[in-house]
Automatic annotation (TrEMBL):
Family the entry assigns: Belongs to the vitamin-B12 independent methionine synthase family.
Pathway: Amino-acid biosynthesis; L-methionine biosynthesis via de novo pathway; L-methionine from L-homocysteine (MetE route): step 1/1
Lineage, highest ranks first: Eukaryota, Viridiplantae, Streptophyta, Embryophyta, Tracheophyta
One Pfam family recorded for the sequence: Meth_synt_1
GO biological process: methionine biosynthetic process; methylation
Keyword check for Transferase: yes
The name this protein goes by in its record: 5-methyltetrahydropteroyltriglutamate--homocysteine S-methyltransferase
Keyword tRNA processing: no
Coiled-coil intervals: none
Protein keywords: Amino-acid biosynthesis, Metal-binding, Methionine biosynthesis, Methyltransferase, Transferase, Zinc
Known EC number: 2.1.1.14
Catalytic reactions on record: 5-methyltetrahydropteroyltri-L-glutamate + L-homocysteine = tetrahydropteroyltri-L-glutamate + L-methionine
Domain Cobalamin-independent methionine synthase MetE N-terminal: 11-207
Length: 654
């Protein structure tokens, strides 16, 4: 769900498999943890990723022939599953859960058949156990539902009834008799208190379908995507706290619902929940009529800059007078220990505003000097005042709350602390203008204003569940639009609006892509449709998989886009090779900032040449893959030196 900003654009690592991959039973973690809990008197349900999802979520290793099908490995992985199951059985497990989240995706008949054959193959191994297949994150398609509910050896099915509300209709129309139904009614991915009365009535209707003794109350998915425990929140006020439920509270909600179903409803608990919900609904902190009206007026209309991109680029070039293959960076410069200390001490009021401002100014001036020495064409201020590209803006927008300890695992040991959007979003004051103006005053080169775009702010926050996501996004877009216009009025000629997370918000189901992309791209355009032709709008996107959304990227109508590219074997370029016409400025990253490795001038030059083979010389920009926040100066300086040398070398050859 969230990009870990610390690791910047990394997301998750998946197994890379090939026709000769050999599986063996290596880690016995599932069994040893089951035993450990059992020794403490707790009989747990061991959870394993199901064999079909494991394969479908893996990727073919590099160099593997195109005809290789991941599912061809099913026969060699199932024996390992059998071994694990046998060991769990021997340890005394009575239930086992296989997560098969791929079942909510658009699967073809061949993929669906793999589920049937995999579970038929496992049937004898799991006999005597209750087997739960858990699905989550979206509606399950009708065909997949049919396959799922007729799998052999399976005794229970779990569904996400929050993100998969339509699945309810499928369950109501037919559910196999004698099987358990795990009803995921409590949202496992967000932080809002459940509407217990509504969930109870859903559950009561499902009791009729599955039978009283076969209905199990559950969260919609695992609780790893939500914050841990509300008791750790000392800074949130009581009113907002009463609207929330983190993982620990969700477990209590599930329990209360199960008890209520069993005829032991805790009336006081349900009444307190209803009161909290009512207070959230009517709170003036949530609703801002003016914002609601402005956002509603945006729907259905188109917001585009009046002039087309090539005419705009001409107008901008007259003003900016940039060399061919302009060089720039993505925004952040290394975040040193000293910088973090300054921000921490300012927040804790240990240093005065004056001291803080002067420390940040000094840092900006250092970053400006470095870039001038490197001879970079379009500069950045380095983002030293920002802890995080979403939190920094959220803290200055109304409608946002922040937790002290609401950490969520993003990737490996990396965690993020997403803001909570609880109310209508507005921007009381300019957020970045002071710093951008300060930075611009230090140089005669263009200084990029640096903003986070509405879709990224939305996708990296806990979002309200009382209005559609797009409405919240439009509200954020209007707030960012004001900032863009203030930056322009302050004399900033180049403004970058990062949409690092646009791609990751793409729904799992293809049928929902168009709708999402439409409002997401529209929100981006809203932020900058009002600027003059001569103001150059940049955007930046992380993650390499753009090929399927390239037309939406073009439709964002930015003047320049910088894109992560170096880790994807220049996959991006293949789109252009295949004939997609791109007329705006584009900077596919020329080196990977995720690695401490310093790229040589030759290899960067080689990369640029490859790009020039498919892109017009006058639209190509030269820049790293992403922000430099996590790198050290000892890495950044030589890498950028080589980037500029490579660019200059190629300029002489054009
Ligand atoms: N402007 C941000 C930075 O440079 C962009 C980060 C990102 O794409 N994740 O750090
Ligand atoms: Zn990035």
């Amino acid at each position: 769900m969230f990009c870990c900003y610390l690791s910047l654009c990394s997301h998750f690592i998946v197994p890379e498999l090939g026709p000769r991959t050999k599986f063996s039973y290596a880690s016995h973690k599932a069994v040893s943890e089951y035993k450990e809990a059992k020794a403490l008197g707790i009989d747990t349900v061991p959870v394993l990723i199901g064999p079909v999802s494991y394969l479908l979520l893996s990727k073919p290793a590099k160099g593997v022939e195109k005809s290789f099908s991941l599912l061809s490995l099913l026969g060699s992985i199932l024996p390992i599953y059998k071994e694990v199951v046998a060991e769990l059985k021997a340890a005394g497990a009575s239930w086992i859960q296989f997560d098969e989240p791929t079942l909510v995706k658009d699967l073809d008949a061949h993929e669906l058949a793999a589920f049937s054959s995999a579970y038929a193959e496992l049937e004898s191994a799991v006999s005597g156990l209750n087997v739960l297949i858990e699905t989550y994150f979206a509606d399950i398609p009708a065909e997949s539902y049919k396959t799922l509910t007729s799998l052999s050896g399976v005794t229970a099915y779990g569904f996400d009834l929050i993100r998969g509300a339509k699945t309810l209709d499928l369950i109501r129309s037919s559910f196999p008799s004698g099987k358990y139904l795990f009803a995921g009614v409590v949202d496992g991915r967000n932080i809002w208190a459940d509407d217990l009365a509504a969930s109870l009535s859903t559950l009561q209707s499902l009791e009729v379908v599955a039978g009283k003794d076969k209905l199990v109350v559950s969260t919609s998915c695992s609780l790893m995507h939500t914050a841990v425990d509300l008791v750790n929140e000392t800074k949130l006020d009581d009113e907002i706290k009463s609207w929330l439920a983190f993982a620990a509270q969700k477990v209590v909600e599930v329990n209360a619902l199960a008890k209520a179903l069993a005829g032991q409803k805790d009336e006081a608990y349900f009444a307190a929940n209803a009161a909290a919900l009512a207070s959230r609904k009517s709170s003036p902190r949530v609703t801002n009529e003016e914002v609601q009206k402005a956002a509603a007026a945006l729907k259905g209309s188109d917001h585009r800059r009046a002039t087309n991109v090539s005419a705009r680029l001409d107008a901008q070039q007259k003003k900016l007078n940039l060399p061919i293959l302009p060089t720039t960076t993505i925004g952040s410069f290394p975040q040193t220990v000293e910088l973090r200390r300054v921000r921490r001490e300012y927040k804790a009021k240990k240093i005065s505003e004056e001291e803080y401002v002067s420390a940040i100014k000094e840092e900006i001036s250092k970053v400006v000097k470095i870039q001038e020495e490197l001879d970079i064409d379009v500069l950045v201020h380095g983002e030293p005042e920002r802890n995080d590209m979403v939190e920094y803006f959220g803290e200055q927008l109304s409608g946002f709350a922040f937790t002290a300890n609401g950490w969520v695992q993003s990737y490996g040991s990396r965690c993020v602390k997403p803001p909570i959007i609880y109310g209508d979003v507005s921007r009381p004051n300019p957020m970045t203008v002071f710093w951008s103006k300060t930075a611009q005053s230090m140089t005669s080169r263009p200084m990029k204003g640096m903003l986070t775009g509405p879709v990224t702010i939305l996708n990296w926050s806990f979002v309200r569940n009382d209005q559609p996501r797009f409405e919240t996004c439009y509200q954020i877009a209007l707030a960012i639009k004001k900032e863009v216009e203030d930056l322009e009025a302050a004399g900033i000629q180049v403004i970058q609006i990062d949409e690092a997370a646009l791609r990751e918000g793409l729904p799992l189901r293809k049928s929902e892509h168009a709708f999402y992309l439409d409002w997401a791209v529209h929100s981006f355009r809203i932020t900058n449709c009002g600027v003059q032709d001569t103001t150059q709008i940049h955007t930046h996107m992380c993650y390499s998989n753009f090929n399927d959304i390239i037309h939406s990227i073009i439709d964002m109508d930015a003047d320049v886009i910088t894109i992560e590219n170096s880790r994807s074997d220049e996959k991006l370029l293949s789109v252009f090779r295949e004939g997609v016409k791109y007329g705006a400025g584009i900077g596919p990253g020329v080196y990977d900032i995720h690695s401490p490795r310093i790229p040589t001038t030759e290899e960067i030059a080689d990369r640029i040449n490859k790009m020039l083979a498919v892109l017009d010389t006058n639209i190509l920009w030269v820049n790293p893959d992403c922000g430099l926040k996590t790198r050290k100066y000892t890495e950044v300086k030589p890498a950028l030196t080589n980037m500029v040398s490579a660019t200059k070398l190629i300029r002489t050859q054009l």
